[in-house]
Amino acid sequence: MRELDIKLLWGRSGNRCAICKMELSPTGDKYTLGEMAHIVARSADGPRGKEDLFLDERDNYPNLILLCPTHHCEIDKDPDTWSRSKLLVQKSEHEQWVSSQLDQGRIAVLPVDNAPFLSERESAWKHFSTERIWAVASITPLSIYGDVIDPLSACFREFYDSLRVLHFPNGDEPVNRTLTRPSVFGLVNEDLRNLSDGNGHRLEVFRNGHCEYLVCFQGSIDQITEAIREGRATPLEAEKVIRYTDLADTIKNQLETVSTLWQKCLPFRDMTLTWMLVNSSSSIMYSRERDFIGPVFGFPVTAAHLLYREVANVDDHAALIEQTVRRAVNSFGLVLDKLFESDGTWRRPRRMT
Fold it and tell me: pLDDT at residue 196 above 80?
């Protein structure tokens, strides 16, 4: 879901269930947690899913309705009673009620907006990365209200102890538990001991519910760049070469990590997912070697940083991995039909034909 659609939905709904008028929050308990329901389901097999509505329009504001958990369950269990037309009327009448209540000063609406906080974090990531390439994955509550979780609780400590982090060229390895410590914001595990070789990570959970996982793979980039330059008779079009499989492995590891943390420890149904490649300018993607053709490259990236963001559901992590990998590939001028081959290996990106 797009941020604009989410802000429209919460604002025009007055942070209240469109059916029972209960006041809701994106960070509430299980009874007051606002749920952004689809009027026509995302898939044809879901409630009202066979209605005539393009799939790429089903996450947009006109097809969303804000409900409490009880009524979300009710409309999806009884789609015959709660038809598309009935829900659209219910939504329209509710928004008119909200507008009237606001005009009379009977209710107040706290904006659902994490944009200022996310802008601060982006600036912090750029400053932290210096000139190295880092991949950043984060999940953020839709609203930043202050301290809503305790990162030092047993759930988070156990998660950190079981964590496996990605280090090139050795793959994922158990986290060094001695590096986990309380931080200004919450709880962090940071290993920058090999940063001079282009390897490092930082995983931090904030008291406001935000979680971010940063991975440096400059070492992998330096290695493949040198190898490509030595093997080619003509100069490359870019200063840095990013091997597709290294980037895809990084994205998969990052999103699986933050998604698992979300499912196990965080009290939110919907959060903003951000994936960012910091210091991406003058880089190019190396896809693979092809018989008789040679190496397949993308196109040089001129943007200083690549950014992908959307509002996601706690159960969406598999789809988020695919979407994020595809977006990263597209940023390098390549396309990807599907993520994996039949044997489970990564399918390699190609140029458009």
Answer: yes
